[in-house]
Predict the structure.
Amino acid sequence: MSRSRRPLLPLGVGVVGALLLAATALLLPFDVRNSATAGYNPTLDPKRGIAVTGRRIAINYPNLHRIDLDLRAYTRAPRYDLRIHIRRAAPGASDVRVIPLGVAGDDIWHEKGDFADPFTKLHFEPIVDSAGKRYEVWVERGPRNRDDIVTIWSIKTYSRVTGRDVLGALLDNPPGTAAAGFVRVVLIVLLVGVVGAFGWLLGGVVALVISAGGALRAIDDQAGGRAPPVAMARGRWYTLSRFARWPFRPLPFGACRPSR
């Protein structure tokens, strides 16, 4: 590579890396949690000790395809046959998804460990037009579990979207109480700054590698194509037997007394 093109390589790598980062973040789909208080929708009223079998949820994004339910059972059964219903929160609305669920009794027993994951994850066919809508989620007990008590303590919901959808929703409804236009400008500047900083860092790494390679080649040229000799130190072996030969004389107890 000619010396005149060396400064252009880090710049090109940095620009391409920044563009790839932006394209990956905006176009690749991933799971995003719909906003809710503390990240989930609670249904338990701990003051009154009441838990219900369903709740209304609000969805921010399209393609709702997963719900996590904190199911709690209060009557012992080896296994529960349940059905989870999802329907629009509107009078006379019919179910949009019905998910059969068979779960072991120990997995949803109401007394769970402090570090145990209490949620049961359910995947279903995405609801494409779920953005900005409200749904009702409730659990139905099967025929052999009619007399059992099964409740829902909380619900988490996830949508399968791209970064472009998340960015669009964020710009349409920016957080905070400040002027919406000012917050949008700040968010855009921060996002562009992050992408630019990644490209600058990547270009800097490439420039450092090129500089190190040039320095090594210069050293090799000065040595006539041969690596310079390295001074070798003469080693010495130390063994346990050598230390075991040290004289050891125990100190009498009386020698520790202070003189009067």
